Amino acid sequence: MCHVIVTCRSMLWTLLSIVVAFAELIAFMSADWLIGKAKPASPEEVGDRTGAPREPYRPTLGIYGRCTRISHMQFSRRDTLCGPYAENFSEIASGFWQATAIFLAMGIMILCTVAFVSVFTMCVQSIMKKSIFNVCGLLQGIAGLFLILGLILYPAGWGCQKAISYCGPYASAYKLGDCSLGWAFYTAIGGTVLTFICAVFSAQAEIATSSDKVQEEIEEGKNLICLL
User: Does residue 27 surpass a pLDDT of 70?
Assistant: First the structure.
């Protein structure tokens, strides 16, 4: 018989697992890892039709994507174009970034799998006599290690030609040059920290769902068990 067990700790772990997976996925797909050096407006963009000055813009560069501005002569209209600069894996600007993409992708795949499984832990708490929470916690720890490897290797690629074109000639491995870090990089770091928090917290979720109070509710014949 299926018992639906919901506790504060198990629900919090489930929500955190989903948030972490989405955060890492969004960061990986974003082009806002590096914010390039400011580029002055072109003569056509110096002022709009009202005479207001145009501010310099800063293009952004991701692991495999980028955002830049395309100017149009008519009405000095400006469009920001975002998309992948690499059509395939081999065209990613740096070998270090290729390794980063591999490690991040592996970590994100594991996190997405855990996030999917975590939804069903309300009904199924063990499989083959092993706690799902403990297994998921172990997988989250492994995913966290992949994410750390990816984030460590990423700055080593700042010396590639693509990064230099955005960050200036002083950019090199682990040196930003004229660039600054974008929100995607910080989101990936925050998601990595939360990944290890989730891995540790999975043990608390397992304890909460196998507590004496839960067992008492099961013995009383209840199928829906909600405990604070």
Answer: yes
